Amino acid sequence: MQTQDRTTRTLLDEAIVRSQTYLLSLQHSAGYWWAHLESNVTITAEVVLLHKIWGTDFDRPLHKVEAYLRREQRDHGGWELFYGDGGELSTTVEAYMALRLLGVPASDPALLRAKAFILARGGIVKTRIFTKLHLALIGCYSWRGLPSIPPWVMLLPNEFPVNIYEMSSWARGSTVPLLIVFDRKPIYCVDPAINLDDLYVDRDGAEELPRNNDWTDLFIALDSVFKQAEEWNLVPFRDEGIRAAEKWVLERQEATGDWGGIIPAMLNSLLALRALGYSVDDPIVVRGLQAVDNFAVETEDIYWVQPCVSPVWDTALVVRSLVESGLAPDHPALVNGCEWLLQKQILDYGDWAVKNRTGKPGAWAFEFDNRFYPDVDDTAVVVMALDAVKLPNEGLKQQAIARAVAWIASMQCSPGGWAAFDLNNDQDWLNAIPYGDLKAMIDPNTADVTARVLEMAGRIANGEQSNHSKFKIQNSKFPHANSFGDASRTLLTSHALDRALAYLIHEQEPDGSWFGRWGVNYIYGTSGVLSALALVAPQTHQSAIERGAVWLVNCQNADGGWGETCRSYNDPSLKGKGISTPSQTAWALIGLMAAGDATGNLATSAVDRGIDYLLSTQQPDGTWNESEFTGTGFPCHFYLNYHLYRQHFPLTALGRYRELLAVSH
Predict the structure, then answer these.
(1) What's residue 467's pLDDT?
(2) Residues 575 and 608 in one domain
(3) Do residues 220 and 362 both lie within one domain?
(4) What is the pLDDT of residue 2?
């Protein structure tokens, strides 16, 4: 080995040890890893409003929210949807509302700057539906400007083409309680009482739904019929629908108080209970409010609320990174983490079973507690983490894996791919209804989730646990499903594999990239698909793999890293473009190394430069800094900053690179 190679190896070894040491220091005593999940400020602003409506604001340190909101305001006067976006109208209006509810006068310099920002972008009338909803609750917007959602929707049978289970799990969990709120149309008195009249450019359109001048305006016409029926008290089955919605909400509250594991569903459920006249002392309400508190982050100076919590996701990904970077598979920290994961397997039927009549429970959710909504992505990653670790009770582990793999197999959608939470949840017309202006009403299969499933199947077949000291991808040549081990054979029958591969090839963009639904964006999607194809179809799909690798190489930045702005969801010409980040650089490296293994043609220069970027940007304590949002909630509308992405993904990339060096020498 040449001196330069030895120096690189030394730097690599030191960086890996620093990163491992840091991650091990974060493990909770129960065995899991869990870091903050950051979004924009609307989540916190809506929590302020919730407590004002319930009169529970003095029981929480909401005064610290003011400091948080002031910290997050940018020089242009607005608040951002994601880091560095230049400010966003609806986010800014909700932040302004929250500050006013916290007692900040409209004359405050921060609010004057915000007001100028808001008015320059058209004012309140131009905001999204959910911003208008929250304003309507305190009389700052007209309920007539919001779409009507007739309660009888709850009574439509599951077999009917339109029913609540045709909505995505997150839309369903948020919408069912809103059937109650939209029916009651409450206006609450809050202290301090505020109005936001100064945020209107004019009132034109404040009582009308925005038109698109296309076929979707049919829904506007239908909405006017619903509103007329409400005014004349001619809504059929109104009371029955409200009772059904109330029952549905109550049945889906976790023992911990959560609904759906996400703040929007939790807040909307509490708003529904308030509209129905529940007491603040009711145990259901008390548990619900406590669940919201559990998502809060409080420091000496600030208080803010996460949109969700991600311990299962964080734990599984950290475990994988530690194993792939050389930690022994029976290391106590890994054993503790995986035994915690085993305890979190969900053995109850959830909403997924409405459309999936054959599957049996055995999946994992994202959060601590979310028995109704496990998801395919988390389950596949947990399976890979478990498979990579040696546990005292291997039989118990294998049973859990078998249950999970069988569940995933039953969730394959008609087009051949996998969605996150549901089976064949793909009625795109739902995104055209006025209520669906976030364009997130459905959960269709996606390339990134499908790739994760195929990677899982390939990893199981490859036997990660049997030889953890090697970079195993180079030995996995499985062009046919019958090459796979027992567990993955259940999943990847020849027909299922062919359908999934055909779906991925169909989804490949002309430039060779793949769209990333749950991570930003084409770098994420392309990395995931390359990792999958390299394991399950390296010989039969070399052309697709090569094209994906070429695309990644072509979007590498001059500093050796990779980055992509969230704006690539709005403007595909920006795909693969953005300042370099540790997480996105790691994704690109993972994809390129997988592609190189599959084709025998590694993009050596690009990979070496990417590794140099990670080594040069690592901090002395083993961490990487990353302010950018590289996680996706709803494309174009809601983004996430996973605070562990910047740590474990680079470690995974460094670990795989070290094994690549070992194989090459």
Answers:
(1) 35
(2) yes
(3) no
(4) 45
> 118 with 238, same domain?
yes
Tokens of 155: 């009574």
Domains in the chain, number: 2
| pLDDT for the residue 7 | 77
Buried b (16+ CB within 10 A) or exposed e, 466-483: eebeebbbbebebeebee
| Domain residue limits at 572 | 3-37+309-411+446-664
Neighbouring CB atoms inside 10 A of 569's CB total: 22
Q: Which residues contact 1 (CB under 8 A, 6 or more apart)?
A: 9, 665
| Geometric angle at alpha carbon 227, from 226 and 229, rounded to 5° | 65
**DSSP labels, 522-571:** HHHHHHHHHHHHHHH-TTTTHHHHHHHHHHHHHT--TTS-----GGGGT-
Which residues are catalytic, by number?
377
CA separation for the pair 274, 311 (Å, rounded): 30
* pTM recorded for the entire structure: 0.93
Within-domain flag for 437: no
Please tell me the distance from the alpha carbon of residue 13 to that of residue 18, in angstroms, as a whole number.
9
Domain membership of residue 428 (yes or no) is no
Is the alpha carbon torsion for 124, 130, 135, 140 positive or negative? positive
Hey, which residues does 443 pair with through a beta bridge? 425
pLDDT the model gives residue 161: 82
Q: What is the mean pLDDT of residues 641-650?
A: 98
The domain that contains 557 carries what CATH number?
Answer: 1.50.10.20
Domain boundary among the residues 272, 287, 305 is at 305
Question: pLDDT of 478-518, one tens digit each?
Answer: 433 333 445 444 566 788 899 999 999 999 999 999 999 99
Task: Mark whether 456 and 586 lie in a shared domain.
Answer: yes
- Tell which phi-psi region holds residue 233, choosing left (phi > 0), alpha (psi between -120 and 50) or beta: left
Q: Are residues 286 and 338 in the same domain?
A: no
- State pLDDT tens for residues 336-375: 999 999 999 999 999 999 999 999 999 999 999 999 999 9
157: exposed, middle or buried (Cβ count in 10 Å: 0-12, 13-18, 19+): exposed
What percentage of the chain exceeds 70 in pLDDT?
93
Is 435 contained in some domain? no
Task: Give Cβ neighbours of residue 73 (< 8 Å, ≥ 6 apart).
Answer: 79, 95, 110, 113, 114
Predicted pLDDT at 476: 38
| 270 Cβ neighbours under 8 A, 6+ residues apart | 50, 54, 285, 288, 289, 292
Give the integer Cα–Cα distance in Å for 272 and 553: 51
Query: Do residues 44 and 65 share a domain?
Result: yes
Of 255, 287, 305, which closes a domain? 305
Say whether both 10 and 57 belong to one domain: no
Q: Is residue 489 part of a domain?
A: yes
DSSP state of 151: G
pLDDT average, residue stretch 91-107: 98
